[in-house]
Amino acid sequence: MNWSNVKLIFLREFRDQLRDRRTLFMIAVLPLLLYPLMGMSFFQITQFMREQAIRVLVIGAPESSELPPLIETNRFAANLFTGPKNADLLQLTVRPPEAEGKQDSVEQARSDMLSGNYEVVVYFPPNFAQQFARFRQSLIQTPGGQPQPGGKAPDVTISSVEVYPNLAKDASKAAYRRVSDVLDRWREAIGRQNLEDSHVPASAAKPFEIDTLDVAEEGQHKAALWSKVLPFVLLIWALTGAFYPAIDLCAGEKERGTLETLLSSPAERIEIVWGKLLTIMLFSMATAILNLASMAITGSFVLSQLPNLGPPPGLAIVWLLVALVPVSALFSALCLALAAFARSTKEGQYYLMPLMLITMPLTMLPMAPGVELNLGNSLIPITGVVLLLRSMLEGNYVAALPYIPLVVAVTLCCCWLAIRWATNQFNTESVLFRESERWGVGLWVKHLLRDREATPNFAEAMFCGLLILMIKFFLGFAVRAPEGVDDFIVLASVTQLVVVLTPALFMTIMLTRSPVQTLLLRRPPWFAPIAAVLLAVALHPTVNLLQSVIMRVYPLNEQLAEALHRMESGFSDNLWPMLLVVAVLPAICEELAFRGFILSGFRRLGHKWTAIVLSSIFFGATHAIFQQSLVALLVGVVIGFLAIQSGSLLPGVLFHIVHNSMALIVQQVTPALAEDQHWLHWLMRDATGDGPLYRWPVVVCSLLASAVILVWFHKLPYDRTPEESLQEAIEHQSPHWLPG
Amino acid sequence: MIHVRQLTKYYPDLQRGKIFALDGVSFDALPGQIYGLLGPNGAGKTTVLRILSTVLRPSGGTASVNGCDVVTQPSLVRHQIGFMSANTAVYDRMTAWEMVEYFGRLYGIAAEPLRQRMEDLFTRLQMNEIRDVLGAKMSTGMKQKVSIARAIVHDPPVLIFDEATSGLDVLVARALLRTVAELRDNGKCIVFSTHIMREAEKLCDQIAIMHRGHILAEGTLDELRQRHEERDLEELFFRLIHSHDETHELEASRP
Question: Which of A43, B74, B176, B251 is deepest in the core (most CB within 10 A)?
């Protein structure tokens, strides 16, 4: 790739976008106008809302000198409110009870409410005051007002006061809350008065106060609020800012006919993609930053009016800007790939919605209460970034630290895949010169079966991988977790045969002409199987160490760990069947699926390592526990490499069998065996809790030996697919050769 | 200079399986010659030229430009060709000067030699008055000039013109044909596709008549006239196409 070409393309696209009024409006003008306008309307609306008085109908308000005052000249008494002005907010209409009785009053109240005259109706039973008077009488029976010691509570009940809100309406709900508060305070006042009259100190009913002392340091509330709002705003604008330039730069160019001009120029596809990507990224970041800045300026005016909330802490801005780079890169690459696929700007606009539907939940998920940064969440693209960002904003650096590499790795991986996808779009003629054609499910299925090729294509491999994941997901719901070893054996076998093997074999037979070539059912170089077995043995100490490091950094949750431990304790008694189920069966099924059908399909892209990594991601994802998936992903890369270099599935199968067997045996057998076999102590040490670990010199030797074997595999002359040969030829032409 | 051997290109079609846009096309074009591809719409002219410009990849056969293979060395090929077609538009939001300069830089020409070359080109093609006009404001003729300047800014040995005169008025088309002829006289190897008989007659040193992905006849104008005993190129063209269609239908109707 020639970076000066990338720079040229970037500068041109950048200038082109700056000359486009629509883009400029979306990116620069809209944010500058939007927030001041929003702020203005916010004040308008709050003013309007403050002036809105709540209308309350009070039926049969009790009038008695014995009761503390409830209503004073068409208002609730001022001492029943926290602030003196709040009394004005409730506008009362006081009405005597209907002569016919309660039923009629209530009916009348309901119809008044429905016609929107009142937000809340309060109904006092007609003889409330009399009942209360009698209650007081019975309370103060004894001369001198002393209550009888150990005496019973007065025998008089007072009918309830009834409040009628319409809880389906927000205004009524708010009014109900205010009226309830007023009535509560009134009742409390009556209670105090009663105690006083009975010569009981008021503290008898409220012997102590409950003081709430928030330990959150000053600024933490602010940080907590900002850490939820800011990432969301940032992401939404980063996406919007990437989308419109992307559409204009790809689909727009197709429409205007300039794409073919560019494609026939010496610029490589990858240079075009990078040039456009950097432009889109710049606009995405600029949009997000401008929006944040404009929001901050307007916000600082609005917030100065609100108590308890100041501007976000300065460090937060730094973290936001750091996080903006990978997020913009990811969104830009995604938008670029989608826009390259679109035939016209109009078609491009259609893709905004699906893109939003995918990214919005990922951005919203972290806002849900209780969603914290953990291993599972940190692996979700975008969600992981938002959660990490939130931890940083809240100042939980130590807790966030272990997840930084994961989030960065996941984000980079997604970016890389999206860029590859975009580049691939620019290399695909059917995308560049797409024409509408008649499409029907029947026609398409017929085409799949009729025009099948020797090996599956990329889309078929992708579909197979997703199908396996989907079946596994639904099977997880249908089947309960295994309880004993027998359960486990059955479930593991079914999973392998039904979930992994069946889709891959079925698709191989239906969609390819050469199952032998697709599933790599060929004889490897004679030494390759032996080398694979040696590699599995040599690599085991390293994998073992890696696994324990992963377990320590991202510990299993206790429930899961206990369930696993319970199950594993039964393994050593059934070693042979377990080896069959844990080592042999998966080795055959998973290899046929992931290194057979799926890897063959991905290799049609023409990039060996992309194919290996993609197939390993699917391989990792089929493992139930995240911690296992991480190890499986790396092991998958090794096996994929063996499969391609040897041109056969066999070395991979053998590697897989030996690798899984050793993991099982070391976990199960070694602790018991080490008692009487002292030579084992030379190899292993018992790391408490995490199972046995190899000694450091053994790990170093293991790494060296593995490297030697991997180099040997690397030197094997492997069979390239036509696409791989082509890519190699293209990469080996010298791009700077000029005529003359 | 350009060698095309048994070039095929097919597209998968849901209904009919493979649709052949090119079916075994072979020809050679030499420096100092204009090689004309003459054919009706859908004959496969654009497909051949898109393959030569490496925008499309052939399904079979080989094509090389100045010794570089279009499939395995596309970048080298693109350095040696200037490609201009009805589908290669100019940028709306760039001026004529910026556009030509941009492509010149993409071809790796240093700033100063590029400026001199462009001054020369702009004078030769009489483009100085549209130097600072944005693409969106240009007339079709102006755009065509910019496209030519863009295609020849790096002085490539091979030039490919695909229906370059379509949509142009007589005056502009005539000027364009004159420029193409000049380029030929400067020793360039030119492939020129058209469906207009007059252009082929006037301009092309070699003519290949294309129809349905095949070359039906090839040679100089005189050779074609002699071989088919027909003075009028238009008549000759219709006869060839008609007889090809007839045999094609006959084959298709056989059980």
Answer: B74
State the pLDDT at residue A652: 94
CB distance A227 to A389 below 8 Å: yes
Q: How far is A670 from chain B (nearest CA, A)?
A: 55
Question: In this predicted structure, what is the pLDDT of residue A143?
Answer: 47
> Is beta strand B206-211 parallel, antiparallel or unpaired with respect to B214-219?
antiparallel
Residue A429, chain B, CB below 8 Å: the answer is yes
A513's tokens? 């002409």
Q: What percent of chain A has pLDDT over 90?
A: 22
Residue A308 has pLDDT above 70, yes or no: no
- Indicate whether A739 pLDDT > 60: no
Exposed (0-12), middle (13-18) or buried (19+): which is A32, by Cβ within 10 Å?
A: middle
Q: Tokens 């809240």 identify what position? A: A394
| Higher per-residue confidence, B154 vs A307 | B154
Measured between CB atoms, which of A5, A8, A429 is closest to B56? A429
User: Cα–Cα distance between A189 and A184 in angstroms, integer?
Assistant: 9
Phi, psi of A123 (to 5 degrees): -120, 120
Residue A575 has pLDDT above 70, yes or no: yes
Kindly provide the ipTM of the predicted complex, given to two decimals. Answer: 0.90
At a CB cut-off of 8 Å and minimum separation 6, what does B212 contact? B23, B42, B43, B44, B244, B248
Sorted by sequence, the CB contacts under 8 Å of residue A92 that are 6+ apart come out as A56, A57, A58, A71, A74, A75, A76
Whether residue A735 is predicted with pLDDT greater than 70 in this model: the reply is no
Q: Tell me what pLDDT residue A674 has.
A: 63
Residue carrying structure tokens 């939940």: A361
Tokens of A155: 């025998």
Residue range A463-488: mean pLDDT, rounded: 85
Q: How many residues does chain B have?
A: 255
Question: Which tens digit of pLDDT belongs to each residue from A391-436?
Answer: 887 778 888 888 888 888 888 888 888 888 888 888 888 777 766 6
The four Cα atoms B50, B53, B55, B57 give a dihedral, to 10 degrees, of 80
Closest chain A residue to the Cα of B67, Cα to Cα:
A739
**Looking at residue B107, what DSSP letter applies?**
T
For residue range A577-589, what is the model confidence (pLDDT) as tens digits? Answer: 888 888 899 999 9
What integer pLDDT is reported at residue A144 of this predicted model?
47
How much is the CA Rg of chain A, to the nearest whole Å? 36
**The pair of three-digit structure tokens given for residue A468, joined into one six-digit string:** 């396996």
Residue with token string 């697919």:
A721
A-B interface: how many C-beta pairs under 8 angstroms? 106
B102 inside 8 A of chain A by CB: yes
- CA dist., res. A614 & res. A594, Å (int): 10
Beta strands A162-165 and A120-123 are antiparallel
Q: Are A497 and A589 in contact (CB under 8 A)?
A: yes
The H-or-E segment that residue B63 falls in is strand B60-65
Model pTM greater than 0.80? no
Backbone phi and psi for residue A611, each to the nearest 5 degrees, phi listed first: -65, -45
3-state secondary structure of A656: helix
What residues contact A147, with CB distance under 8 A and at least 6 apart?
A139, A141, A198, A199, A200
Question: Contact A53/A119 with Cβ under 8 angstroms?
Answer: no
How long is chain A? 740
Do residue A733 and residue B73 have CB atoms under 8 angstroms apart?
Answer: yes
A220's tokens: 């933490």
Strand partners, A95: A59
Q: How many CA atoms lie within 13 A of A576 on its CB side?
A: 0
E-strand ranges in A60-97 read 71-72, 75-76, 90-95
d(CA B202, CA B200): 6
Measured CA distances, A314 to A296, A310, A654 (Å): 12, 11, 56
Confidence of residue A738 (pLDDT cuts 50, 70, 90): very low
